[in-house]
Amino acid sequence: MLTLARNRAMAECILLSGDEDVRIGVQQAQEYGVRVHLVGIAHARPSQSEFLKQEADSTHEWTKSDLEAFLVCNCEPAFDHEPMNTEISAEDAEILREIAQHHASQLSDKKKSEVLQLTAGEDWPRNIHRALLGHAKNKFGKFLERGEQTFLKTEFRKQLENSTE
């Protein structure tokens, strides 16, 4: 993208990404006058960096019907889309609460307020996300499933809210 922008080989760019790491490249391409249009595929919004979305000149989300206009899938689905098991045992829930409490207690009151603001949306800062999930992975010996992650993050925010009141 940068090479094409620098050589004035494009005026507009469609970027299919969600990684915040690309944001700097977007800024640099825009300095060369390139308009950058960020595209996600249906339901991508929560996984796209908020900062990247703000930096782009426009954002779009392609639906299945948008893609069918130029893509055809001639394959069978690799797996069935069964609902996730979101039940968490009382024992696991208690461990997740302890992890949340531990991480919340490590922050100063000022920092707790800042972290509450930063974690209000879907896109959490990587350092906080990694610390919580890494601690849980070490404790359980496995990566948390989506429901467990949501529970842990919710508990972390509750701990922050309770300690800032």
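Next protein, fold it too.
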Amino acid sequence: MSAKKFLIVTGDFVEDYEVMVPFQALAMLGHTVHVVCPDKKAGERIKTAIHDFEGDQTYTEKLGHYFTLNATFAEVAPDDYDALLLPGGRAPEYLRLNERVLEIARYFAYNQKPIGAICHGIQILTAANVLKGRTCTTYCGVGPEVKQAGAHYIELPADQAHADGNLVTAPAWPANAEWLAKILKVVGK
């Protein structure tokens, strides 16, 4: 099977492992992976956040690394890509306010192209109104949004992922290995 082309839409304070790991793992396998952020160009950087589960009532958040974007958001043509990945962290809560981000998500959903959303990344899909009737998982704190969007929310352990047709979802970065494996299966690799 030939190499695929992945689009990762993200922004400042994306969860570090949810952008770094997919970018590096998919590139290592020979796939093209473009990481974009609204209002930024290739070569510009975004800041990441590290979320951890340390026994508190919710995850903790620390400053992560800088991630250098390798494509320009304004130049993205969704039909050039085989799959869309939406990492979590803080970024999705404001990215879902960007109409072009929502248009990209809708393009992949309406054309039944593979979509991978992990953790809070699914907030983009709830705002795009493309989850009705789907079964998916996410970080538990986003579960009510998923239900309000008309989807069937399933709570899974943090290291598990769920596939529903072209949609692959996971609760958090501990699921990266399973999430990416399921995404690769959906894209046919």
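About the second fold: The helical segments are 16-28, 91-95, 99-110, 122-127, 143-148, 176-187.
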